[in-house]
Design a protein that fits this description.
CATH topology of the largest domain: D-amino Acid Aminotransferase, Chain A, domain 2
CATH architecture of the largest domain: Alpha-Beta Barrel
Structural class: alpha+beta
Radius of gyration: 19 Å
Distance between the termini: 27 Å
CATH class of the largest domain: Alpha Beta
Number of helices: 7
């Protein structure tokens, strides 16, 4: 929803959100040539900004950006300074803030091999109110777009399958929906990566599932490796979800969040291993937060 009084950073300037406009024929709108990142900022601190910004830059390179185009967004200090100023201008101090980086082609010739690409860049922010209860998930009819079609190393703005999966879940009374890959294996949820625990082992979807290469899941792997634990990639079927002892999702906003139900299958949200996993992540996160 457009908030007219919200201040955003758009192409080097701060302005009201209603004033940040793109040409109607720009390639980001007509061809979907855009990517984004979502980052949680708390008390002017963020987690592993270099991971988010390197993935963001990779998306823009895939869209034709030059290294000169990427000079600003590849620098955590420059981006962090702009985010800090944005938070102050919106009077969001001392709150959890959802920051969204959005960039894409602003030229109209996105499909032309002879085009000279130009890009827009926006930073927006709003207050994030965390969902505290364990999540209830359902399995949806929607498939994750294969990585061979749309790279899962980048957060593209093409979110139709995820949006529809989330709408289906909400209509059925669940909090989030699970997408499968084209072969029927578990991929991810509409807005998060997913993992399960079975017989005191931790499993996540295999790389072949096309699940997004999530930053929070990457940080979780680092945290667990330090404690001698590991996430085991596996080709997970629906049956594996419904036989799991516990499950969790990971995202920049939620961190590592417990799941209490998948379809009608009840899960132990306070499972001892899951509690250890969450504690490892929380500790590692605190040690790796940096000022914006």
């Amino acid at each position: 929803m457009l908030q007219k009084n919200l201040i955003v950073y758009f192409d080097g300037s701060f302005m009201r959100q209603s004033e940040a406009v793109l040409p109607a024929n720009c390639s980001a709108l007509t061809f979907g040539l855009a990517c984004f990142e979502t980052i949680l900022v708390s008390q002017y601190q963020w987690l592993k900004p270099e991971y988010h910004l390197s993935r963001f830059a990779a998306g823009l390179r895939a869209l034709g950006a030059s290294e000169e185009d990427l000079e600003f967004i590849s620098n955590p200090m420059s981006v962090g300074k702009s985010i800090r100023e944005l938070i102050d201008k919106n009077n969001f101090r001392n709150q959890d803030i959802r920051v969204k980086l959005l960039a894409g082609r602003s030229d109209a010739d996105g499909l032309s091999p002879d085009a000279f690409p130009t890009f827009f860049f926006q930073i927006s922010a709003d207050i994030y109110k965390p969902f505290l209860l364990p999540l209830r998930l359902c399995i949806t009819e929607w498939e994750r777009v294969p990585a061979s079609v749309l790279s899962n190393q980048i957060k593209w703005t093409f979110y139709l399958p995820s949006k529809n999966a989330l709408l289906e879940a909400k209509k059925r009374g669940f909090d989030d929906g699970i997408l499968l890959d084209q072969r029927g294996y578990v991929s991810e949820t509409a807005v998060s990566n997913i993992g399960i625990i079975k017989n005191d082992e931790i499993f996540i979807p295999a790389e072949t599932s096309s699940a997004l290469n999530g930053v929070t899941m990457r940080v979780l792997k680092e945290a667990l490796n330090r404690e001698g634990l590991s996430l085991q990639p596996a080709q997970l079927r629906i049956k594996d979800l419904l036989d799991a002892d516990a499950a969790f999702v990971t995202s920049a906003l939620k961190g590592v969040h417990p799941v209490c139900q998948i379809e009608s299958h009840k899960l132990f949200a306070m499972h001892p291993l899951l509690e250890k996993v969450r504690h490892c992540f929380t500790t590692h996160r605190k040690e790796n937060l940096s000022l914006i």
